[in-house]
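Let us practice reading a record.
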Amino acid sequence: MPDKITLNKNDIVEADITDMGINGEGVAHAEGAVVFVRGAITGERVRAKIIYSGKNYCVALLDKILKRADCRTEAPCPYFPKCGGCSLQHIDYSAQTVFKTESLKNTLKKQGVDAQNVLSAVKSDKEYYYRNKLTLPVRYPSKIGFFRAESHSVVEIADCMLQNFDCKSVISALKNFMAESGLCGYDEESGSGDIRHISVRRLSEIYLICLVATHDVSKRLAPFCDALKTLFGENFSLYLNINTKRTNVIFSDKFVFAGGKENPETEIDGLKVIPHPAAFFQVNDCVREMLYSAAEEEVKNFSAVIDAYSGAGLLSARISRKAEKVIGVEINEQAHAAALSLVKKNGIKNLTPICGDCAEKIPTVLERTGGGKDVALLLDPPRSGVSANVIDAIIKAKPRKIVYISCNPATLARDLKLLSGEYEIRYIRPYDMFPQTPSLEILTVLENKRFLDCAPAALRSK
């Protein structure tokens, strides 16, 4: 690389795309600089316009395709590529999963993690219309849409092809309500405005709708509640979340029930569930089933399974059917309350939900179980990965098996490197929870090295 990048903003370059970046950009080299070209695909030759020139790399927009990749396809969404919700619609779905798998391998290798045990990605049965959750920013005066890639500028949308429910009608209902009520969208610069976000989740036939506002507008929501009743009948719950902080975090801790069915009960994976807007559920029902079934199979018949970062307890409850004892740890109070309700509703006797920070609770729980050959640990952390305290506790307690579900290859690679002294990777399998985007869920199974020699041959070779 030259001492200084000579490409400047607005320069036009022609280059061959030799690789793909982690966000789905084409990677090229021009005048000695690394150039990330949005919308380009490996194997193409393109003309591109530089929109950013930094010390180490440039970013460019695709201007013209000079040589087309075989896997390029026409994006069906009218908002692509302006909308930041998707970035891979221009790539054939099979090629998307190959790209994601290779990207995962590259991330692992950069951290010194052996990638030879990475299996092919498990595909979603649906390329579109698979998401059970939609969260959209609402900005002044009444813009509803997705943020443009790498910006806080909202691209207005009327519909989204990723959702498995009629989001078009919900967006329309919110715009009409705001126009009639006089409520306006949020202004990030001034902190003024009323409505910051709308979140909609479909769980079975129940719809959870939550408006995030800068102040309590619950007494003004009756017309919006009526509109939702027209759309969903009695099968919805409307909540208001009041978030006064100047932050990018969507929800605060303050939720107010605002209409519809309070504490609605639904069934997921054969379990009676009373969901809450703050509770975590995987967004792709089909892929969730495949992922959770694989995790269940790995921890069956253990005397104790510890489910760290356990959310609303759905996976913990599933595991309780096959393990003698399950302990779930979750920091979010609403999610913990949902887990307690799930346990009570389903009469589960061998699942104990604990509310607290995994960094504080997991070391104590591992110490009490004594670790060893009868203990399995399930990790499903946020994007930031597993905290250093939990990693230290794992290494000290030495549970026989770790089943790690990750949504972030970079922090997964970091944590696997830290665990590599005590644990051997049996396999790493990506699951395409998020078609048309660069994101994955990743299932990694690790075995404590001191138990490998006594494990059955089938288990060692899996």
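A brief commentary: Confidence is low (pLDDT under 50) at residues 455-462.
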